[in-house]
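Predict the holo structure. Ligand: nicotinamide-adenine-dinucleotide.
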Amino acid sequence: MRLAVVPGDGIGPEVVAEGLKVLRAVAPDVEATPYDLGAARWHRTGELLPDSVLDELRQHDAILLGAVGDPGVPSGILERGLLLKLRFELDHHVNLRPAKLYDGVRSPLARPGEIDMLCVREGTEGPYVGNGGVLRRDTPHEIATEVSLNTAFGVERVVRYAFERAVARPRKHLTLIHKTNVLTHAGSLWSRTVEEVSAEFPEVTVAYQHVDAATMFFITDPSRYDVIVTDNLFGDIITDVAAAVTGGIGMAASGNLDVSGTNPSMFEPVHGSAPDIAGQGIADPTATVLSVGLLLDHLGRPELAKKVNAAVAFDLSTRDPKATIRTSEIGDRLAALSG
Ligand code: NAD
Ligand code: IPM
Ligand code: MN
């Protein structure tokens, strides 16, 4: 297994070290190559993601990424020039984000019930494409646009993937989350696509919610969700809510998938570089470890993924919720439990 590792910024290197610890415990054959990308490189050389590095990354089976973003770099430089460039160049059209409330984990909700959802977020379109511009900058009449791009091809492939995941799960339920009452052009494309593809999956029941109502139901009735399919920006927002109600952002995993297998898929925690706690050794590495689980599943090693997930489930059921997290202690424990 040839793995490219991009630790990145802030707590990225701290949590990635623990993810690798666990990966090595279950898959000693892993050959991990670190790539120095992120704020430090940008400060040193002005580079974000040189083509030569991108070409090298393409030669790997998968990528493990920590986080990017730094208070000393203008907002958007690293996010667009590195993270989104990776997702777009490597055609990561599915951004897979499970959210599960594990036994022993306290949700802030009054009545959380069982939460086990799988958000299939579109990854290469929507308002993320950078299709926009500014006119009359720095004048009182400045105009800024950010146009959401939605293609039939792009919507169909992510919707189809969501149906495939839904049909393989016990509840076989899929919810489209959008804002079809306002974003009528893109909304219509998404709704029609879901309707068309649903004909091929008669076992899957389908629901629709506007994104504003959905954020409310994530808090008041999250157990209604099974698989969710949604656009890039809505998916970004609702998966932070889903993380919060299932124990916190330190436990939310993700996979950026090129489902066709042409390019390596990339696995990363949902959270960012957390500059407020970086360097203190107190970041929760669980999200990264669960992302390693997704990586193993994706690379056709479900038995190893099961070991990693079982280790996390056991650890969470025995964690003292009041104890301060030590990043490396959790990694040690999870590696020992998985290996
Ligand atoms: P963030 O996720 O970094 O932090 C939000 C809050 O969650 C902070 O209080 C942080 O301490 C806490 N937190 C995050 N991860 C944690 C963990 N593993 N354990 C414990 N606490 C954790 O989001 P932000 O503050 O909005 O963004 C900070 C920077 O990260 C920005 O530059 C942003 O663009 C970037 N970012 C990058 C990614 C990514 O690389 N995928 C994702 C989100 C944000
Ligand atoms: C995430 C992040 C990224 C996103 C940013 C940093 C580009 O918030 O991975 O959730 O919006 O997708
Ligand atoms: Mn986000």
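Residues 1 and 14 are 22 Å apart (CA to CA). The chain has eleven helices and twelve strands.
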